[in-house]
Write a structure and sequence with these properties.
single chain; alpha/beta; D-Maltodextrin-Binding Protein, domain 2; 2 domains; seven-stranded mixed β-sheet; five-stranded mixed β-sheet; 12 strands; disordered N terminus
Length: about 280
């Protein structure tokens, strides 16, 4: 696996973030790589998923490495190359991972999310129609909440590049900051990164509209793992979700419980998966 070195002060742009949790792995076993979709900063991913990686390592007696990527497209490319043994990704990209690489859906977080369209708290905008002719900052264009948000705007007669201009801010937080700093009139971002913003920043924003509920992140395993390995990982994740441990409670308090996947969910996000697939193809 290729590693790219970045200076520590560029943590937000880190390509691959590696955490070796050294607590009782088997010396002769290949490490398991847990790849986490970069929907928040690298630092926040480490803080959020370190307890998950630690639980896997302790129960499986196998070293676990925690990785993310600099952006959504890079994460998809690493997924396509099979660099992650355990994959935690957005549901529409989980569908792509299953179709293109053979990743096996395992579990999901049951806390559904909204995509949010936010404007500055003191802005004059009160309706989506008020955004005609305006600029909207977005997280990565293939983000599920961005696709869903643009679909909501289209349903209201507002088409991207015709009735408004979208501006790729790369991350959810950057999209919100574009509004706060006056560089965009509104932003499309996910509910969870918005909730993680510092209160003094969030107070400068106002939610103008929400998408319908969307499914949250999903765990998958690479087909190179055996059925026994896959089932062992599944049991550890379910046990972690039910654990009374303080770190586990904090984790599923903000993410939701880890539960089995409903196949109907994958069908529901199929149109968004196809959109993302085409957008990724056009980038090449």
């Amino acid at each position: 696996m290729r590693l790219v070195r970045f200076p520590f002060h560029k943590l937000a742009l880190v390509l691959l973030l590696l955490i070796g949790l050294r607590t009782g792995w088997a010396d002769d076993a290949r490490p398991l790589v847990l790849g986490v979709f970069p929907y928040v900063t690298a630092r926040q991913i480490v803080e959020s998923y370190r307890p998950v990686a630690k639980a896997l390592e302790e129960k499986l007696q196998r070293r676990v490495l925690l990785y993310t990527a600099r952006d959504f497209t890079a994460f998809v490319e690493h997924t396509r190359k099979g660099e992650y043994d355990i994959l935690l990704t957005a549901p529409h990209l989980a569908w792509l991972a299953q179709q293109e690489v053979g990743y096996q859906p395992l579990l999901k977080y049951d806390l559904s999310i909204h995509g949010l369209l936010v404007v500055k708290s003191d802005s004059p905008f009160n309706d989506l129609a008020d955004l005609r002719g305006r600029t909207l900052a977005t997280a990565d264009p293939i983000a599920l909440v961005v696709l869903a948000g643009k679909a909501e705007l289209a349903a209201r007669g507002l088409s991207d590049k015709i009735d408004y201009q979208s501006k790729d801010a790369v991350t959810h937080i950057n999209a919100a900051m574009q509004v706060i700093n006056g560089r965009a009139d509104g932003a499309l971002l996910a509910q969870q990164p918005y909730n993680l913003m510092r209160p003094e920043l969030r107070q400068q924003l106002r939610v103008l509209a929400e998408t319908p509920l969307l499914p949250s992140l999903m765990y998958l395993t690479h087909p190179r793992l055996s059925v026994a390995e896959m089932q062992a990982i599944r049991m550890v994740l379910l046990d972690f979700s039910a654990s009374p441990d303080a770190q586990a409670r904090k984790h599923h308090g903000s993410h939701g419980a880890i539960v089995p996947i409903d196949d109907a969910m994958l069908l529901a996000i199929h149109p968004y998966a196809l959109q993302a697939q085409e957008m990724l193809r056009q980038k090449k």
